[in-house]
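Incident review: delayed structure delivery

Summary: a single-chain prediction request sat in the queue longer than the usual turnaround. Root cause was a stuck worker, restarted by the on-call engineer. No data loss occurred. The affected request and its eventual output are reproduced below so the record is complete for anyone auditing the incident later.

Affected input:
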Amino acid sequence: MRFRLRNGLAVLVAVFLSGTLGYVLIEGASWWDAFYMTAITITTVGYKEVFPLSVAGQAFTVLLLLVGIGALLFLLTEASRHVIEGELRTALGRARRTRMIEKLSGHEIVCGWGRMGQAVVESLKRRQRAFVVIERNPDKVRRLLSQGVSVVEADATSEEALKSAHVERARGLVACLNDDAHNVYVTLTARWLNPKLFIVARVAEAGADDRLRRAGADRVVNPYALGGTRLAALLVQPAVVDFLDVSASPDAEQLEMEEVRLGPGGPLAGHTLAEADLRRKFGIAVVAVKRAAELLPNPDPDFAFDVGDVLVVLGRRDQVVAFGAHATA
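Output delivered after worker restart:
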């Protein structure tokens, strides 16, 4: 399309140059008069001749008229087609994105695509999670669309925006806007729309943690405090941090850490860790168990599993997948 548009423009420019040069050579006109005569001939505005035309000049004008109108019509047609097809592609793309979002269920919602939001999106991509971003900046929306990311162009603090992202069917939400007050408002609205939603909120100012928790956030993250803690850990426990980074990474080739929730009717409910013998059967280790709001690290061999327990397990990807299928069956 753009190639044809450039070619049409090049042909029209060539016609203008040829017409101007022709009138200069045939009729001895000045360059400006020749250019003006070419312009009114090609555009057929109906003005009288700028200078008297000889028979050769009249014949040249007829030829210029035929070629020029053809070139002009071709350029206008291609330009119109470019605009119409562009608008059509945009409309079809918007409809396709809407259909994709309409099908989402159990997905994650990322509110805001700033520096932290970008990091969240990249992590969700690596983990192959279904998600949608709510962002109001048109430039950022275009960048997200170019990456194939489902996005709702709206203010994340708007109830309509959250509904457009189908928050009522979502599994989790990350509120990572730059302002704590906006994150509080997003959290309040999202919690009201979906009481079961798992909400993680970013906080920047000291003292805002409690407000976000009271608003309904399940987890509150202060990136500055978290970054400081990580720097200190790297300083005094670099091997531990390296291990955690490798095990928590979705790209881990050897070991990875994952959580598995025990479903109703699963084979592990009522059995102890020793009876399950997960190390021999699946090659995995149970690092911790979360029961309700309580986290139980390094459970004893006589620890009995229950329905709804979330097991934090460590193993190779294939081992973790096999255990997950077994535990939730």
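Verification: The chain is about 55% helix and 15% strand.
Action items: add queue-age alerting; document worker restart procedure.
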